[in-house]
Write a structure and sequence with these properties.
The chain is mainly α. It is about 70% helix and about 0% strand. The chain is built from 26 helices and no strands. This is Ankyrin repeat protein SKIP35.
Length: about 500
Amino acid sequence: MGACKIDQQSLLDYGLSVALDAIWFLRTKQDLEGLNGLIAKIVASGAKDFARAILRTSLLASCVAACQSKAISVGDSKEIVADRLHDRLRDCPGADHLKIEAGVKVEKFMEWALQCIHMHHCSEETQRYRWNCNTLQEVQLHLSAFRAFLDIAGDNLSGKIFTEAFDAACFPLTLFSSLFEPGWSSGSSAVSIKGLLSLLVEGGADNVNQCFLEAARFGSTELVRILLEIAYQNSLGVDIDLALVYASHYCKLDTMACLVDEGNPSSLLGPLIKAAERGSLQVVHWFVGRGVSEIEMCLALTTAASSGHFDVASYLLEQIPQQILEALSTQILKAACGQGSGSLEGVAFLLRSNFLGDATATYDAADLIARGATNGEPPDLVAFLKEHWSQVAFAEGVNAGEAHFVNVMRVLRRGTSPVCLDALPSQMVLGIAYLPLYRACVSEVGGQLLPQRLRGELVEAMSRLGELTGAESQGKDLVMTLERHMPAFLVGS
């Protein structure tokens, strides 16, 4: 007898789930009345697994809406689900074996949902999961039937169950959102999903923000749009700013546009800085196109430079007006040294790039910090600039060049080596004397300016070679002049 009762209970609970699944395929009011009566009889007969029924039907309803947006073949469905599940689980926390187990369970459940849709709506000729979208009248029938079930279930459904059902309804939309056709969010399928999710919120689902953030992270733009509407309609708080950070982190540009246009984030600065820190040029470019302020671009510039993403920094330098760079020159150099990173490559990049567009102004900005003429200079930055980029460094470079020339002359005139340097061709002697300086300059000449120390040595060398140069002469021209005096085989080495 006990086994019979268990079997009967299982059949009733299974029957409730199957009957509830049929809601999303209703076509007429007569069908609605018949199904409502059937569900009521099953519950009256003792069905009580309401949690399983609502979770299952919520996921199925979402799959129905998703599949109405794009043709998915029977053969492709498993591959599509598997690929998207892999993407979803890849960055989730937890042990790999647990992710695999969860993925297998969810994949089987999704396959069941797609097969269920296939049985209800599948052309024998095309074997495609596609049919004409439900009319708004049919959608109202579906939502009416679901509401009737909620009334029947009453207190048997807790807030926790509604929350889980809400998550189940959102899940397929995050998997298939990239397949949605334009305009899906304004069609009847979206109306159906909005209605379902709204009913679940009324029942006590409290995870709208969690699902909203997840949708933003995975670029589920249509779901983001729907959840925004639900949040506004029900006066629920959703974290637009954090959602924008997630979407920008994963380079979901369409979702970012939706969040900015319809969510009205408080600021674009946070995600812009994060994108600059990661070196995501595409996302930084998008934010610049959205009209971030000049000050925000300066902050992104220093972040990109201090993080070593010089392609992003170069792009931002082209976007920031010159007068802004000039006004903030010393602050930009200080910020580019990074927070506790110990690296000054960002500062060196800005100086080599002639970030102020004027060599004298760029050198002066570096010299100002090197002399301690501004407030709050980091000691390591001051030492670096004083050694390489200051007027003092230039003078030291000139002195070092003079000392080097004297040493070369001593070797030529007093050297006791059996190799008589003064017997070599003059160009060869010049190559021996200045090859180290030439190589040091070439390694720096990727930018527009040379460090002052090297530039001082180079100016001194040019004067010894009879070239007319002045203290204002710049790196590239000086290096090219030195190169003309060097043996061709050394220059090419």
